[in-house]
Amino acid sequence: MKRHIPNAVTCLNLFSGCLAVSQIFAGRLDLAAYFVALAAAFDFADGLLARALHVSSPIGKDLDSLADMVSFGVVPGAMLMQLLVRGGTDLPDWLPYLGFIVTVFSALRLAKFNNDTRQSDSFIGLPTPACTLVVASLPLILLDDRFNLAHLILNPWVLLVLTAVLSGLLVAELPLFALKFKHFGWSGNALRFVFLGLAVVLLFLLQAAAVPLVILLYVVLSVARPARS
User: Fold this and answer.
1) Residue 71 to residue 132: CA distance in whole angstroms
2) Three-state DSSP class for residue 27
3) Do 194 and 224 meet the contact criterion of CB atoms below 8 Å apart?
4) 175-215 pLDDT, tens per residue?
5) What keywords is this UniProt entry annotated with (predicted)?
6) What is the rounded CA–CA span in Å between residue 9 and residue 64?
7) Residues 6+ positions from 145 with CB-CB distance below 8 Å
8) Nearest 5°: CA angle at 218, between 215 and 224?
């Protein structure tokens, strides 16, 4: 029975992603963002449970990728498309569909991950959940625009640049640390604890507006870390 528990949690990730898609096309990007956060929590939990229960299988690995393709591949593309639609009425009709470039690169990222033996304890390229959390934070920032960012978030050219940057980061040969704890001591986990501490502070101070900064911090700390950390 225990070997099915992580897969059940993975299915909850997929179900949350499907709910997010439904809310995007219903025009409720804010609700979709909450379902993305739920999917990310389930995605983190399934790996944690698999390691804790010492269970793994090829089916579990494939199921995880299929679930991620919906929750962290289709969802950010659809969300970017909807934001581009809202960003300007004078845009060419085809331009908002460029948001789905993130979906294409998410598929490439997941395929690379499944076949790259270097990514067992760390990542090469931005993980798809991190990419999606950046996109999902945008409608939440708009919902409570205390920092006057709407003019940037709804600027189609800013959104297209963001689409290109995120797509590039997904497949970049960029070594990034993973939030996988083999133990909870400081030694060997210092970078993870520093990142998590700074992330909590940023989220407390800036709330949804902190999410892109947290992901940027993740990339910067990964690049700046000592080679053997």
Assistant:
1) 8
2) coil
3) no
4) 999 887 766 788 878 899 999 999 999 999 999 999 999 99
5) Lipid biosynthesis, Lipid metabolism, Membrane, Phospholipid biosynthesis, Phospholipid metabolism, Transferase, Transmembrane, Transmembrane helix
6) 10
7) none
8) 145
Task: Report the alpha-carbon distance of residue 148 to residue 170 in Å, rounded.
Answer: 28
Question: Phi and psi of 80, rounded to 5°?
Answer: -65, -40
Mean pLDDT of 5-14: 96
DSSP conformation class of 155: -
Give the C-alpha separation, 162 to 101, whole Å. 11
In terms of Cβ atoms closer than 10 Å to its own Cβ (0-12, 13-18, 19+), residue 154 is middle
Element spanning 122, H or E: strand 122-124
Strand (E) or helix (H) holding 177 = strand 175-177
Q: What is residue 37's predicted lDDT score, i.e. its pLDDT?
A: 97
Between 86 and 184, the higher pLDDT residue: 86
Q: What is the pLDDT of residues 88-113, one digit of tens each?
A: 777 888 999 999 999 999 999 999 88
51 with 107: CB under 8 angstroms?
Answer: no
Dig out the tokens for 163 from the structure.
């689409």
Closest by CA to 179, choosing from 223, 220, 134, 127, is 127
Q: Report which of 61, 78, 65, 70 is spatially closest to residue 17, judged by C-alpha positions.
A: 70
Buried b (16+ CB within 10 A) or exposed e, 212-221: bbbbebbeeb
